[in-house]
Amino acid sequence: MHTQTAPPSFDSIYNFRDLGASINAHLGTALLKEGLLFRSGRLDDATASDRQKLVETYKLATVVDLRTKSEHIRKAQLAAQSGTTSSAETSPPWKTVRINFLSRAFELHLLLFLPWYKLLYFLLLTLLGLRIPAVRVIASNVICKKGLTGITLDSLRYCQPEILQALEILSQETEYPVLVHCTQGKDRTGLLAVLVCVVLEVPLEAVVADYVASNEGLRPVREQMWREAKDVGLDEDYLKAPEKLVAEVVKFLEAEFGGVEAYLDGIGFGKAKREDLRRLLVA
């Protein structure tokens, strides 16, 4: 029987885990290969020791960064204000693929929910290059009202090319070992992990267990997360990884697309690519 191992120790990388080990620990059996697919929060503040551990211990080859342009801008602004230099500014010893997961189509969809006068205000801020204040308009008026579940389901509709791009990377043997992250490693990273696990035929209870593990993984930075969430207009619901979300994702895909596999067929991640993913990650 597989036994739970202690969480890896990093100085400034949070919510890190080996997806295979996380699933296997919950199931008590080696269903997935370990040491290949990792997930975490952002790597911007990783120390030299953290980076060394990612390379020497985890043999990291590829990082998939799911953050938006606004998040990269905001992180750079915060670093400038504090007088610190992000480790992300130095060339990492791994390949980084940036995928703007919350796509232009997704943003345009959210704009439809703004009253006309707030839409004009948003457009003015955008024209002036004030991207972060513009994000606050959408966050406080649309994203908070939709809630985490609503936004997650919207992303399944409007971020399909980005989801496909990420999954295609994970289906290529030459990219491994791979680490996927967003800002917290909770929502976008969590959604991608859910889709991967369903393809790998992981029992739903284990998928849920891995998803909610972010609640503990982010505990050391909860106050920082809350400050950052408030700064862009989000509420406390966006600090959580609710257990119900996984079932809502599966239910939505079944109702709207005929199931997860039908959804993946529709976005271009067909049977052959899913078999490649299974071959790489199923023990």
UniProtKB/TrEMBL annotation:
The keyword Transmembrane helix applies. Pfam families: Y_phosphatase3. The keyword Transmembrane applies. Signal peptide: none annotated. It comes from the Eukaryota. One of its GO terms (molecular function) is phosphoprotein phosphatase activity. This is Protein-tyrosine phosphatase-like protein. Coiled coil: none annotated. Gene3D superfamilies: Protein tyrosine phosphatase superfamily. The chain crosses the membrane at residues 108-130. Keywords: Membrane, Transmembrane, Transmembrane helix. Residues 161-226 form the Tyrosine specific protein phosphatases domain.
